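Tokens in:
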């Protein structure tokens, strides 16, 4: 499981965008988001490097948590 803090993930639209970005690199990824906590948990076989790059490319400031 990967865990990140995404400081500019502020609403449900952000969650949808981030989820879509993650599932763009792993269609089977399971994404759990906590908007209030700005945190994201992802079950995926993809590497953290690939996942965080995809989230960053979608416009989000992602740091490992
Ligand atoms: Cu938003």
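Residues out:
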């Amino acid at each position: 499981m990967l865990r990140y803090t995404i400081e500019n993930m502020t609403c449900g639209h952000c969650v949808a965008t981030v989820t879509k970005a993650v599932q763009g690199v792993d269609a089977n990824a399971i994404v759990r988001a906590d908007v209030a906590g700005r945190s994201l948990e992802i079950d995926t076989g993809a590497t953290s490097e690939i996942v965080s790059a995809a989230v960053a490319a979608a416009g989000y400031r992602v740091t490992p948590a």
